[in-house]
Recover the amino acids of this structure.
């Protein structure tokens, strides 16, 4: 029964990504699961930590909802990127909002560069009018995290590592603080280690 359920979810996902609905499957299965959420939910959004691609795909198909992601930090008024309602990609957090500018900064120690192929990668730097002036009574931390360019745009170093897709959407793939330098100078991600071992994230 579990294998049949898994097949049904994968089947629905494959057709939805091609732009086709699955009305019979929606009537037989999805409507029953949707009733667990009250039966009237149309869309859901996830903010905060990036949502795993498998979790996003499963939730979207199982409950028959539009499931989007938003990403940012408190320091940039909470929302810097958001997915479009018609975006069926999984694991991405959308394109920048109209009030936010995003650029990449190379982080060579971690092996991330804006020149990486097939997609540019690096630390996500956020700029625009929504960026806060700094941390209250913490001048050293403010100086480390914020900078103002020649055009007067205030930029914030997010600490998140992202990659940018050709359509302008962004996927958060790592976090600088999660990377630990080993004895021989190699960096590993504690988050990826915990995911592979099914341990809680550190």
């Amino acid at each position: 029964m579990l294998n049949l359920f898994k097949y049904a979810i994968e089947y629905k996902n494959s057709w939805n990504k091609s732009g086709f609905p699955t009305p019979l499957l929606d009537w037989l299965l999805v409507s029953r699961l949707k009733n667990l959420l009250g039966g009237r939910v149309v869309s859901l959004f996830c903010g905060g930590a990036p949502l795993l691609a498998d979790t996003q795909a499963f939730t979207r198909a199982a409950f028959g909802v539009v499931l989007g992601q938003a990403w940012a930090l408190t320091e940039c008024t909470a929302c810097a990127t958001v997915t479009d309602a018609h975006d069926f990609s999984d694991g991405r957090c959308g394109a920048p909002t109209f009030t936010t500018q995003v650029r990449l900064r190379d982080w060579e120690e971690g092996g991330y560069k804006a020149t990486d192929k097939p997609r540019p990668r690096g630390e996500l730097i956020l700029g625009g009018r929504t960026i806060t002036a700094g941390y209250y009574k913490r001048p050293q931390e403010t100086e480390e995290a914020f900078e103002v360019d020649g055009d007067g745009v205030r930029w914030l170093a997010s600490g998140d590592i992202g990659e940018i897709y050709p359509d302008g959407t962004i996927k958060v793939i790592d976090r600088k603080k999660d990377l630990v330098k080993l004895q021989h100078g190699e960096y590993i991600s504690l988050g990826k280690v915990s995911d592979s071992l099914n341990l809680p994230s550190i």
In short: The longest strand covers residues 154-164.
